[in-house]
């Protein structure tokens, strides 16, 4: 009943959390979610369903008797998560880690009062959604044209800090002398006096989902400033359609031109965005080296050539991946033109 009441956005979040395909119409998503339940889902998926249902119907609390299932989401007594997120996430400096906030133990007086008188507490106030971890275990999809040299800011949650629709967070990172040297050496002057770098500072945003590697994904009404200067987002923002803002296609952002190339002065990034119900985002900053197509071609040649029979067997295996499917693929037209 809970899953059947979900909207498309909640079904997509649930399927993404469970590592299933989250594209398609609502009916397909619902069938996939119900099949996930029938096949026996893990306790983590069950907690996710309850969490999404509480967000959908905040006044309806299911399973009050099952306190063990809802305690982590409501009381947040886990010492690994900090109740307060620092406004400034400093790369390489651990003084702002969650250890600086003393977590309450389950035996503390405050938590014992909460656990003794559970029902009146639920009737008096709505449960707040669980606070995302400061540094979620998010993995980004690797980009074919870039080698990651260093992590300047590891994936950090863009946590809602107020009830306002528009949120803003600040982040700080500093470059080492070696990193500054690598960026400066890679500088190339282009026609028109423009500068380009093959070693770049790259900002990436994605959904805070830990079920699988994430593609670049921008939150709504995204605005980025680096050291107080507005960073122009790539592409264009299409005009609102039916009053709803259309999403920009996500991609990594090369912010090198606005970064202070000095190891003595830190860099500040300001990210503002419009919060969305049921969607949490993560940001991270990397030092990367841009690869040319000649480099990639050379790497492919070094890997060697696969036997044609092996390739045929792989293709046949992919075409018959779903043995329960009633539709058999007998032929397939594909383009051999390189998408790059």
TrEMBL record:
PINIT domain boundaries: 126-291
- Cross-referenced InterPro entries, in alphabetical order? PINIT (IPR023321), PINIT_sf (IPR038654), SAP_dom (IPR003034), SAP_dom_sf (IPR036361), Znf_MIZ (IPR004181), Znf_RING/FYVE/PHD (IPR013083)
Pfam families in alphabetical order: PINIT, SAP
One cellular component term (GO) for this entry is: chromatin
One GO MF term on file is:
SUMO ligase activity
Q: Name one GO biological process term.
A: protein sumoylation
Listed A to Z, the keywords are: Ligase, Metal-binding, Nucleus, Transferase, Ubl conjugation pathway, Zinc, Zinc-finger
Where does the record place it?
Nucleus
Identify the metabolic or biological route this protein is part of: Protein modification; protein sumoylation
Annotated family: Belongs to the PIAS family.
- Protein name per UniProt: PIAS2 ligase
What gene makes this protein? Answer: Pias2_0
